[in-house]
Amino acid sequence: MPYYIGDVIKDSKNLVARTPEKFRETGVDVRLDVRAEKVDRDKQTVRLSDGTMVPYDSLVLGTGTTAFVPNAPGVGMEGVFVLKTLPDAIAIKSYLREKQCRKALIVGAGFIGLEMCEALSGLNVATEVIDLAARPATRWDPEFSKIIHEELTRHEVGFSPNTGMSSIEAGKDYRLRLNTNSGVMEADLILIAIGIRPNAKLAVDAGLRIGKSGAIQVNFSQKTPDENIYAVGDCCEVYHRVSRQWTHIPLGDVANKQGRVAGINVGGGSMIFPGVVGAQSFKVFDLGVAAAGIDESEAKESGYHPVSTIIWGDAIARSLPGEKRLGIKMVADRATGMLLGAQAVGARGAVERINTLSCALWTGMRLEEIAYLDFAYAPPFSPAWDPIHIAAQQLLKQL
Amino acid sequence: MPYYIGDVIKDSKNLVARTPEKFRETGVDVRLDVRAEKVDRDKQTVRLSDGTMVPYDSLVLGTGTTAFVPNAPGVGMEGVFVLKTLPDAIAIKSYLREKQCRKALIVGAGFIGLEMCEALSGLNVATEVIDLAARPATRWDPEFSKIIHEELTRHEVGFSPNTGMSSIEAGKDYRLRLNTNSGVMEADLILIAIGIRPNAKLAVDAGLRIGKSGAIQVNFSQKTPDENIYAVGDCCEVYHRVSRQWTHIPLGDVANKQGRVAGINVGGGSMIFPGVVGAQSFKVFDLGVAAAGIDESEAKESGYHPVSTIIWGDAIARSLPGEKRLGIKMVADRATGMLLGAQAVGARGAVERINTLSCALWTGMRLEEIAYLDFAYAPPFSPAWDPIHIAAQQLLKQL
């Protein structure tokens, strides 16, 4: 009989509660509010926090990640949050509703922090973001970070670069005070969004292999070196088709796919997970921001000889009204002309272009072909020469 | 010295007039209001309608297409239009402005006819479309034609299926009367949009080869069998990467690319045109409609063993507001699992999905891979399992 155990289900308690029949019908024993504490690989059992031992034929680890919180004074105070789980989100919403928040500080200008700028501003909470880096969204080119920064400014969200938190204490004008290397800031709510770490302890304790990324090592079948143990989702590594390395890319869509692959293999079928190209996007106010593949420094590390270009084009025909400025960056290998990475930013069409280029990255397509790809052109959807064509043609000149 | 001669430039007279300096600077002799009447391949000269003979080293034919008008009484009457050239558009706009049109009839429910529904309705002209077929947009699956038909209805545009025109005469309640096999209709404006034919006469007279599509045969370099004569754009054939046949797909973006390829080859460079996958889109009111590749019957003709499926998914995360229903059809080869064609229809995200699948079609990607492609997932832009994944997984079951 299959079991589901642990945190992830616990977080989704309401969801599970709505469909207990469905689980029972399929013969699945869902155990909530317990934690898997130890895996005994020889005996093929898992010890739960309530003391029971559960035997297994196949074990799937889906232990996810935990939001990283620095070891700084005050991080445990009321009003200081991370945003990783459904209960985190509910806690933030409850706090906002009950405490009449006027101001919020977000520590970390990654995609979670930036998405929360829009959410908090939308609730009329004055919002400011700080980051240790000189700019927001450092995965993206500085030229695109600048656009993101402008979008924050346009919506009255402050951004403090080169700023790290040292401690949190009670505030004077607002509930909380954040001490940083660039001075003191106050707010009613502080969100810490400086990254996540894989929950690999159960695997480490069981002697399974951990990759250099800190996540659990798996093969294409999502299997660990133990024949009977699989790992899926944010807790494990994933093969990057462009860098050709195993890396840690904890994203929901990837986790979904890995779960299915493991499930099919556990169930006696055969399936491999084909890997990822590192596609990612987020929305910050009116701006779509997306990327796939690798940047110049990752390309160098992998052994490629990167060249890159940024072009500014139009997402739709220039003759049509509306905001349509679209920036596309492409990185390619000088020797082969193979596309290695792409980034896009714009009020419309950015994510869609990156999805198309994800497909190109997937197959190792060269710029020469990308420059003449056949798209479903019509003026409301693109110019006759799409920004993708223009960027590829521009970059071809550097080969 | 390069020459540009003929209709296309004539249509764009205003455009050229704005940049005569630019043409002169580059040493290009632009001749307007003349027509190339005869090509003498032995003497390498072109006779113009003003009697002059122009010598050439390389000749590029870009004679385009002509809107097809049936040989029916009354098609030459005032108020009866086609829409192919810039002057056609100007004539329609002038007529609409000057004649207080209350009602328009569109003959032909292809993409030009359907785009004009939106344009005319937007000017408060009551609009009705007729077509010989039982449904609009026959390139698309009947299930999608139904959605298009519903979109017309929702915007009070009538559609008369199985209806062909026989003649036009003066009207009683409106300026014009259209006689059809299903009765008499009246309107102030009639637009005939039942397709186009390649302008291949110059090539035919010169003894160049014409394909079974009626368009001029070229090779990958856009060259005709005559070493010194090229053809580009709507007048010539194009290689379809999926059907692996030379066909006629007269679209602006394809023409642009072919022009560049021929230009580079004429100029002493070397470049091939890699072909198309038949990507196409149009917008009708709030609906995006797109397709790429081939359908079941084209697949059979080409020798494939097609299977197909239609799924209805969400263009963005279900939790977000707004119209997001998206239909995707996929056609694949049963033997190899290779994607052969895709169609999409929806208020958002349809064209973008087809562009991504165009890239997949370009490289001959199989469903197995498409079902697990890595996209830049975020809820404002797609569900974690994109409709593309769902359609591919659905169709995989039929292999």
Draw up the topology in text.
The structure is a homodimer of 399-residue chains.
Chain A: E1 3-5, H1 7-11, H2 13-18, H3 20-25, E2 29-31, E3 36-40, E4 45-48, E5 53-55, E6 59-61, E7 65-67, E8 80-81, H4 86-99, E9 103-107, H5 111-122, E10 126-130, H6 142-154, E11 158-160, E12 165-170, E13 176-180, E14 183-187, E15 189-192, E16 196-198, H7 201-205, E17 229-231, E18 238-240, E19 245-247, H8 252-266, E20 280-284, E21 287-293, H9 296-302, E22 306-314, E23 325-333, E24 339-346, H10 350-362, H11 367-370, H12 387-396
Parallel strand pairs in A: 1-2, 6-17, 8-15, 9-10, 9-15, 10-11
Antiparallel strand pairs in A: 3-4, 4-5, 7-16, 12-13, 13-14, 18-19, 20-21, 21-24, 22-23, 23-24
Give structural attributes:
399 residues, alpha/beta, FAD/NAD(P)-binding domain, 4 domains, five-stranded parallel β-sheet, 12 helices
